[in-house]
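Good morning N.,

You mentioned wanting to compare the apo and holo forms, so I went ahead and generated the holo version with 3-hydroxy-3-methylglutaryl-coenzyme A. This is what I fed in:
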Amino acid sequence: MNIGIDRISLHTSNYFVDLRTIAEARSVDSDKYYLGIGQEKMGIPPPDEDVVTLAASAAYPLMQDGELENVELLLFATESGIDYSKAAGIYVHGLLEMNSRCRTVELKQACYSATAGLQLAIGFVARNPSKKALVIASDIARYELGSPGEATQGCGAVAMLVTADPRLVAIDSESGFYTEDVMDFWRPNYRSEALVDGKYSTMVYIHTLIESWKQYAELSGRTLADFGRFCYHIPFTKMAEKAHQKLCRKFKVDIDKDTLTALLDESLRYSRIVGNCYAGSTYLGLTSLLDTAEEDLAGKRIGLYSYGSGCVGEFFSGVVQPGYREFLYADQHRILLENRTELTYQQYEDIFNYAVPTDGEEYVFPQYKTGPFRFSGISRHKREYESLVD
Ligand code: HMG
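and this is what came out, ligand included:
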């Protein structure tokens, strides 16, 4: 029985800042961002958007299409949690009016947790083939203003329905994974911005890729020539390109610029204008690939590499299913990405410095442009969400 991703839907903020604006404010050549790290824009969430509203908005098209019936497992992957105790997925479960017969939990391991969620969901479906699982990765990437990481912020959520006989991508059973206790990127509970040893993190990302690939190759017998495309975790698009080049070099596979572009570019398109969305980033890449590839990818095997600092990495793969295009939300994604509002530097900094009140009083938040759901206020330390749809 094939098991894998049956539907995939994304949401990001309706606001973005252009990295040329950041470059000007920091007196940096904008080519450093546009060419050096391969990023053009970053999604910035307004005060009434958080990981819950991003996630619920990402999954909303699935609800509209009646796909959430029979979902008995909701896994919410994030490193931007809003509560130490209650799973953010429970708010999403409520907003999407899902069945109460559903296990809902939040998963954390930096950017890796959605992949853990996907693999757990596959195990659940293997045991309950008539049931479905919903995996949502939702994150807001934040680094200090003026820090080297600043240009690699972003935000977004990706919702994936996991079923038997999936209509998009059947996930292969072989997988290579690797854990090592390192401090390349972390965010202590008392901070709202991540700390990172930037250059070191890029080296650990690649080391983990090589270790994960070695296991995957040994278990599957496949070589790098067996893949139609690759989808990497994308903290910034240049990272994915460099990682693939290094992997090829390590295993003595020649790769020129054109081949690299053909294998990776479609998966990088959304990330280049959305930025890092941590747990969702690999799947933002997969959505970008499926939505924007001109070639029909049916029957092609996709290599996926998920990396979460700290660190855990996994190399796995999946085969694109015949007729997959009919089940994408490509038009909705294009409309969302084409209609975002650009922020000035001052607007970006004001939003960045905005902090959710913590004094237990009552607050109603001004309404910005969001998806179908918004974080409308806070009262006695309880978050309040509003649905903007009937
Ligand atoms: P930096 O050190 O300021 O940048 O920040 P740099 O000086 O290394 O420059 C970047 C590139 O731009 C270089 O290219 C420059 O040569 C080039 P490279 O040498 O690497 O090929 N450059 C230019 N190119 C054209 N025209 C110019 C120009 N100037 C310079 N004028 C750094 C880079 C990655 C350190 C920073 O962005 C950072 O700290 N980012 C955050 C950490 C990160 O994203 N790490 C990635 C791996 S870890 C990961 O992916 C996990 C993560 O997603 C978190 C999680 O798991 O939860 C982050």
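Residues 3-387 form a domain with the Peroxisomal Thiolase; Chain A, domain 1 fold (CATH 3.40.47.10).

Happy to go through it together on a call whenever suits you.

Best,
F.
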